[in-house]
Structures are given as C-alpha cells and as structure tokens.
Amino acid sequence: MRSQIEGSQAVARAVALCRPEVICAYPISPQTHIVEALSDLVRTGELAPCEYLNVESEFAALSAAMGASATGARTYTATASQGLLYMAEALYNASGLGLPIVMTVANRAIGAPINIWNDHSDSMSQRDSGWIQLYAESNQEAVDLHLQAFRLAEELSLPVMVCMDGFVLTHAVEPVTLPSQEQVDRFLPRFEPRQVLDPADPVTIGAMVGPEAFTEVKYLMHATQMQALDLVPEIANEFTQAFGRSSGGLVQAYRSSDADTIVVALGSVLGTIEDVVDELREQGVKIGALGLKCFRPYPADEVRAALGHAGKVVVLEKAFAVGIGGIVSQNVRLSLGGLPTRVYDVVAGLGGRAITKRSLHGLLADVLEDRLEPGRLTFVDLDSDLVARELERTRASRHSGPRAENVIRDIATVGSRPY
Amino acid sequence: MLFEVRIHGRGGQGVVTAAELLSVAAFHEGRCAQAFPTFGSERTGAPVVAFCRIGDREIRAREPIAEPDALIVQDPTLLHQVDLFAGLKPDGYLLINSVRTLRELGLEGLAARFRPERMLTVPATDIARETLGRPLPNAALLGSFAAATGVVSLAAVAAAIRGRFPPDVAEGNVAAAERAHDHVRRPVAELSRA
Amino acid sequence: MPEQLVKFYQVGSFVAGNRLLDPAERSVQASMERSNTLTSGHRACQGCGEALGARYALDAAMRATGGKVIAANATGCLEVFSTPYPESSWQLPWMHSLFANAPSIASGIAAALKVKGRTDVRVVAQGGDGGTMDIGFASLSGMFERNDDVLFVCYDNEAYMNTGVQRSSATPPAARTATTKPVGDEPGNVFGQGKNAPLIAMAHEIPYVATATVAELRDLEAKVERAMAFRGARYLHLFVPCPLGWGAAPRDTVRLARLAKETGLFPVFEAEHGEVVSVSKIRRPIPVEEYLRPQKRYRHLFGDPPRTDVLARIQEIADRNIRRFGLVDGVPEPADDVMRLIAESERGPQ
C-alpha cells in the first residue's frame, strides 16, 4: 500500500512486517520515532508475539539483542551516533559470534562537538566491526533494505546494519509503498538459527580462542562477509521479482555508462546529485553518478567496473578519517588501482550542513575545469576565514579557549538565518 | 512543475505538522510531495522551519528550500528577527499569520518587490481560537494557502487533516482551514480583478 | 541395613552431613543424578572458591528446573577457566559475551524464551565482583529495574582476579591488591569506599536477594532453589575465597569463608522485595583477626608493631554488620529512633 508517511514510521512498519520476536530499544535522536512506533505496535498487539525491552543504554540494547538472537529469536534494534559508539564493544562481539541481528542506524554525526544532525561519521567509524553495511537513498529503499537485511543476516549468520540518513530521511514525509504481510512472509521465511541456546542440545558460545585458532576464526568471518558480495545482489533480484521494484544491490549507476566524470556517494545525497547530473547533462556535460548501496563488504569489482572508464571520479562523502583523509575515497581509489582515473576526495554535509545543488554545481565546475587537486581532501563550503581566525587564536595564545565555542561565537548570527 | 513551500514558526505551533499535512494533501491529489523540517532538539518557542515540495515527478533532492515559491509565516514575532524572506521568488506567495496589515507590520516596502495580490495576511490564530479553541494557526494557514495558490485544494487539505487527527480535533481544524480559505479567496479575487 | 541411631555433636557450623537428612533434603551433590553442570577438567586453581560455588549453584538450579537452564557468563575467572579452547566444562547451554553485559545478555535470553512460550526454561547469569559491581553495574541495575526473569549470581572474591588481583569496588578496606599495595600512609585498600551489592539489589525491590558462602554449601543450594521458585529478577551474592589472590592456603578456602561469616564481616541473609526476611545467625562471634591472619593480603597489618588501629576499624565494620543485621542473638539491633538520638547527640547543641 502506497502512502505519504514519515520515514521512521515506514521503517517501523517494515520491521514489524518482518515479525521480529525481540526488540530492544534505547532512544537517541534521530531514531526515536522508529522505536516509539514499534513500541506502539507491540503494545496494541499489532506486532505479536514480540517482546519489547526498554533497556538502560545502547550497550544494553545490543547485548540483550545478542542474548535473544542466540536463543533463536529474530531480533532488532536501532541507534545512531553516540549510541553506536557506546555499543561498539558489543558490535564486534555480535559479528564475532555470528548473530544475525538487524539494526537501523539513523546516521548522525559523532561528537565532540555534540551534534545531532546527519552525517556518516557514526557508521563509518564502525565499518570494520564485521557488520554488513547497507545504505538507503530514500525512505522506500530504507523500507526495502530492512526486509532484505533480515534475509541476508539470517542466511549468513552475520549482523547487518541498515543506514539511513538521520532527520533527512527519518523525519522526511514522502511516498512509500509498504508491502503486505503475505508478501513479506513469502519473501522472509521463519528464522532458522545456525546456533541456538537450547537445554535439549547444549552448546558453549563465546569461548576464548587462543593463537592456535584465532586467525582461522577471523579468516572465516572475512570469508563469510565476502559471501555477501554474491548474496546481496541475489536477494536484491529476488526482491525485485517479489515486489516489482529495484532496491538495494551492491551499487547503483545513474547515467554513468558513458560518463567522463562520475560522482560517487552513499545515502540520501544521491537524490540531490542525480538532479545535478540531469542539469549538467542538459548542458552537454558527460557526467553520471554511482551510489554505493552496500559498503561492507566493499564491492571492489563492481566499483571498478562502473568507474573504470571515467577520467574523473569525485567521491563525495559525509565523513572523513581525521589525520589522513577520505574514507570512501580511499576504498574507491583501491578499486581503481592501476587505472589512470583521477579520484577527488570531497567531504560535504558534515554535522548536518545541507548539501545544496548550488554547492554541487560549484564543486563540479571546479572538477571539470581542473581547479581541484585529485587526492587532496576538499571540504565543500568550508569557511576558510573562520578557520583561519581560530588557528590564529590558537597560535597567539596558550589560553585560546574551547575551540567549538570560539568558532560559534565568531559566527554569531546563527539564530537569525532563515534556516 | 515543482512548487516549493517554506514554513516558518516557533516550536509548538505545528509548523512541522503543517508541512506534513500539505504534503499529504498533495499526495491525495496524485501529486508527488516531500516534507521535512529543520531539526533542533525539542524546544517550545525556538524558531522552526519546515519545507514542502510538490511536483509531478519523484522528488529526489534533499536540500533545504532556498528559493521558495511560497512562504508561510506562522509567527509574526519572527519578522525582523529571522531573515524570513531570503530567496522568495519574484512571483512568490507570502502568507503571514497576523490580524494586522502588511503596512502595519512594516512590510510594505518588502511587499512592493513582489506581486501585491500574492502578499497576504491571515488572522489564522484568531480563526483557530474560534473554530478550534486553541491558538494553533497551521490548519488555517493551509486553508489560506489552498485559496491563494491553488496548488492543493481545500478538500485535499481537509482530507489530510482528517487522516491525521481524531475526529473531534480534526473537525475544528477543518473548520479553521475553511474559514481561512474563504477569508483569502474573496480579497484575492478582488485584487486580481483590479 | 537398619539405620543406626548415632549421636553427633555439632561444633563450629550448621552444616549437617547428608546421612542425617531426609533424602529429599540432601545436597544435590550427593545424588548420582546431579547434572555436573560445571564438569571436571576445568582449569581453576587448587582451592578455587568460585569453582566450588559455581558447581553447587548451577547443579542446584538444574535440579530445581528439571535441567532446563541457560547460562550467561561475564568475562572473568569462571569464564576463562571453564572454557579453555577447544574444551568446555559446561554441560548446559552457555553464552559468554563481554565483561560488562552478562545481565543484558540474560535479559535478552529471557525475552526470547518468553516470546517463544518456553516458560519452563530459566536463565542464570553469573560473574565476578568486578564484572557485576563495577563494569557491569549499569547492566545489572537495568535487569533488576525491568524485573527480567533472571537469577544473577555474583561470585565475590573481592578483586579483579583473572587480570592479576587488582582492586574492585568489592575489595575490603586494608586489603592488599596489585593496585592497593601496602605502602604509604594508608596501606592496602582505603577505608570509606566500596559498595554493598546486596543492599543495592534490595533497593531495586526485586523479588529475592540472598547472600551465601562456600562454607555452607547446603545453604547455598537451598538459596538457589528458593530463588528459582520466584519469577522476576533475583540476586545471589556468593562469598568465594581466592587462595591465589588472597595469599591463602588452598585448603583454607572453606574455613576462610566460614570465618568471614562468623566474624560478621560477611552477613548471610535473605531478602524479598527489599526487606530482610531471614538472617543466618552467628553462634559465637569470632574476632576479625582470626579471619585476617591466614591471608597474606592482610600481612602488613601484623607486622612489628601490628596495625591495631586498622584492625580496630575492621572490627568496627564487623560489629556494625552484627548490629545492623541482627546476626548475634542478644545483641539488639538499634531502633531507628535510637540511632537518630545518638546522631543528634554527636552533633552537639545546634
């Protein structure tokens, strides 16, 4: 059924359709509407049988989810930003133990400074945690990816995080088609755990593994996650056949097959990028876009195949690795090894700063006219004067004060801007 | 054709709901619509902005509306405090929730830069107090918006309201929308004939 | 063979030999049908109080539930010595996740069992004092607060033993650990710190809280059985001497546990919904010195000259416990208004 609803509500309904048996939730902006909606569905009995645990922290949320999953229950939780970090120890534990938990990450910046708005620093910080990472471009895709995520997780016995941009998607009201329960039941069978805590057949889960076997266990983790490179497209195809629309997969190309310049990105910014691509195409520019839908495991072959013919690749990301540079751009550059492609490392949208069509046009003009240096981290819309003034303050005095507060005071007029 | 609306107000006035309802109204009429707020931590009284795009194709862009086709101002105390009018298109519409005229609000000069028949004040809070019993101007302003722009119909606005609220609350809001719709339609028609 | 009437004189303990008891009341360990939940082959130290306590506690839980228990274990000695890869001593479904989350894991297991309608299967979570009272405290409190159907057993050997005997919030005053060495003005762990986990558990008003030691193993079993009769959050705080960490002889484990109780330093009691309902009395209180001397972690108190000031403060802790919990008959618990009067008189004229 197609309706005009808020992203969080749509995701909650999609999750409910997947018949989770245990939901553990700790609230954090901007995921709150999801867990609130699910709480309602459990209370009214619309989602039953389901146990909903109001836990005391995100660490508890994922831990309880692990206990439930190990006992054979289909399990779900959601978090963002600081919450994802707080459960970091458990993230590695869940993937190491091979528990097929599905978690929504409502992408939000990580502090300090504290910031509740959207960027990808949270999920990017956990890209090596052993979780599969999928990124939704729209609320429709967010809905669809949750269905696919449960299939994927349970088939591989690996946890999956579905990333959707906090506020930008979670709090956006747009058209979404939600499947029926019958459709979902056909697509997503009952959970058959590979391992289960059951008195009838006791197992020990979580033993210490020493040097004699640790390497092999980790190798198997890697090998298992790599299997997702085959399974993700397989499940996406099955999804298309079952539901009649394309969602997910490893990568999605937009007007890129004959493009000289391709913009690579993850998540909702792809929508804005596609509009800009259309506008530039009208001006005769051979430009396209590539969306990475599955970031872990990293689809190196697919990325190379999609980008290899382009002379310029602009990787636009909402996070970066402090002290070295782009994260996605490093991965992309790896895929293009040996090719003459110029890769541009661009960071935009940090801490919720809007990525506007105007800025993108400016950026791409710089790229097309060779005003940008490939491989050097470029910050879109950076206020260089502001930065320079703070650096001068730091240089001029030892007691330069807290950085963030200095910068905010310098800007001074935040409250009177239109938005 | 894309029509972009920016709604300004303060927390607690239903600005976010207004944008949402507008998008639902458009959806009911078979259009594609997108609504989203700027976001702050929950706080009553803080300036809030919400956006709504209405078009005929899937809306993919996620940026804030820099050049709105219509501005709705739910709280006139924001005037002269926030740069509300930034980017309003030359043919744009302005609806301000106020019992005063544009001149009394000190906006005559501003209005002169745009099309005068599209610069409107609506006593939305007063209308809401009478029909709804609460000073929540959002539904009324949506009714005025429908009348002024014709981008959505009053019937669609009413349907959106009824889909969102329980019957007793919904009917008061629908009545507010209808009253404000009528308030606008007559003067607009008069201005256009002039 | 006819039963002989034998006269036994009980000294020093309430422990009764199995032959004196009705078969139904005998120790679980006396039965050939016992679960051996923590079976032989684990790598615990000789004289490990925790291994002893865990074996008795889990077998009692298994008997009470017809063998249907799932265990969640925090990181620590018990987890490490019981699962030396590639072996496991556990003969029940058992999960180890992290140091800080055993109660949360258990909450999740309990939720899954509930949703699947498996009310016959029960959950036991366990960990040491560090994992329970320090790093896992939030997780424990959350489980208590939700009243999840979990029995949590804390094996309290009063320090982080598995990592080399570092101080925890359960480390008693004056005790030597690797991070509270007997140097400086206040040798050993400082006074005025620490937390009382059983009282904190009681403050959550959960259905059942109990303390026990490995000196009275039948009492321990009985408390586990009693705990399993309740639904909801339950807590058992088990005093388990650690020969290695305490610098005590492995053969002294049970004796030290008995002395801890008999001095009053470790009160043994049960509570339901936040109120103490039964107390295990001390027949003849023993001075704390007798308990402290056999442990090298207190050796610095018995030098030349001995730290009689510190010993007196430790004795005061024991005496306060005796008063507070009514551990010795004839030593009255002070009434609340009496305590207020004393406090007021100490403050002096206002």
Describe this structure in words.
The complex is a heterotrimer of chains A (419), B (194) and C (350). Chain A is α/β, with parallel strands linked by helices. Chain A is 42% helix and 17% strand. With 194 residues, chain B is an alpha/beta fold. In chain B, helix 2 links the parallel strand 5 and strand 6 (119-122). In chain C, helix 1 (49-64) crosses helix 7 and helix 3 (102-115) packs parallel to helix 5. The chains are: A alpha/beta (419), B alpha/beta (194), C alpha/beta (350). Chains in contact: A-B, A-C. The A-B interface holds A 3-4, 6, 29-30, 116-117, 138, 165, 167-168, 171-175, 268-272, 274-275, 352, 354-358, 415-419 and B 6, 8, 19-20, 23-24, 27, 32-39, 41, 47, 49, 59-64, 66, 81-87.
Topology overview:
The complex is a heterotrimer of chains A (419), B (194) and C (350).
Chain A: E1 2-6, H1 7-17, E2 22-25, H2 32-43, E3 51-54, H3 58-70, E4 75-79, H4 81-86, H5 88-97, E5 102-107, H6 121-125, E6 132-135, H7 139-156, E7 160-165, E8 173-177, H8 181-187, E9 204-205, H9 214-243, E10 251-254, E11 261-265, H10 269-282, E12 287-292, E13 294-296, H11 300-307, E14 312-317, H12 328-335, E15 342-347, H13 357-368, E16 378-379, H14 384-396, H15 403-411
Chain B: E1 3-10, H1 15-28, E2 32-37, E3 47-55, E4 70-73, E5 93-97, H2 108-112, E6 119-122, H3 124-132, H4 138-149, H5 154-164, H6 167-193
Parallel strand pairs in B: 1-4, 4-5, 5-6
Antiparallel strand pairs in B: 1-3, 2-3
Chain C: H1 49-64, E1 69-73, H2 77-82, E2 94-96, H3 102-115, E3 122-128, H4 129-134, H5 137-146, E4 150-156, H6 197-203, E5 208-213, H7 217-229, E6 234-239, H8 243-246, H9 253-263, E7 269-272, E8 275-279, H10 288-292, H11 308-325, H12 336-347
Parallel strand pairs in C: 1-2, 1-3, 3-4, 4-6, 5-6
Antiparallel strand pairs in C: 5-7, 7-8
